[in-house]
User: Fold this.
Amino acid sequence: MFLNSSKSLTDGDYGDRMKITGVNSYIVRNPWKKWVFIELETDDGSVGYGEATVFNGQFSVSSRLKDVSKFIIGKDPMNVRRLISEWFVSTFNRAHDMVNVALMSGVEAACWDIIGKHHGSPVYEILGGPVNERIRVYANGWYTAINEVEDWARAAKNVKNRGYTALKFDPFGAGSGFLSNDEFKRSMEIIRIVHDEVGDDVEMLIEGHGRFNRSMALRIGKELEKYENIGWFEEPVIPEDIEGLAILSRSLRVPIAAGERFITRYDFVEPFTKGAIHIAQPDVINTGGIIETLSIGAMAEAHNIAMAPHQAEGPINTFITLNVDAVLGNLKIQEMFDEFAYPQWAWDIVSARPEVSNGYVKLPRKPGIGIDLRDKVKEYLATEKDPDFNLFAAGWEKRGFS
Assistant:
């Protein structure tokens, strides 16, 4: 195993050990969020893959590679902690730079991919072995074909029929701040329709996308208390409003979830210590990588907080996140867009797809993170003219699919 390698992980220099000789990025034109995939090459022919997708910042990520290549080229991917630590402490903005953190995450995952392939084991085995042999997942992106309020029932029925026991949705349209009375009524009607279709046996996870001020979020939360199957109210206010999240956590019987936009473990300290959230949702890309997300998981466990990692990026990050999920002792559930809101060609550019059955996904079994990029990815490269969607524009729910 990795930690028993005959080559010390704390050698004073990189000597004749494996070295990274190339780092490439591929920006892919997914209809609603361009994906950024990272590829590392080494002097012994090894190749590892990661992901560094940043919403509305994909080309910034790719161009930043020129600036940070000095932290990557010539380094040993087997000593991933040292590589990332040196990079992090040498970057002046550190955790205040989402683009830099995303790149660190993508490169770190690619290093772990190389490590796993080198030892012939999935990454989660190298991290100590799975606590969770299969991962409960919830459906997201399942409502891209909605035109009328009544369409929500049909779409929700499809999710339930596929065996999912939880589904997440944002019923608030383009609302922001305060909802008008009509917007509020429509949103509550959507929630009722979905509930009537799936029943209490399927958890409803209500997405707020940080849309509301405190009073509007409180009003919505009180309405959600009428249902027995609300799993959480996610980002009811902007994630920077930690005090607002804490007020809502104390005032509502509905669990409060947040964390996808928190950067590194340091952004989680205040919400954990203030009891601002019940469920932590770190995104492996936004946190700084696998190691950092596991640190957040340990912090959460110490505060009796569950983990439900965010994953709304590409298929490579799905597999990275599943390797993290496998070793989290306080895992609640995992987000899954892959079956509902990926273009069909997505599975032509990668070597694997998640195996979901009856609301659970199997752990990857192949060495490394369990998925590779195919050469066909070059047929789907994005341009700067390809749009990202706007969560606060009417019709955003379609995500460019219709």
In short: The CA atoms of residues 301 and 391 lie 32 Å apart. The chain has two domains: 2-122, 125-369. DSSP finds twelve helices and 13 strands in the chain.
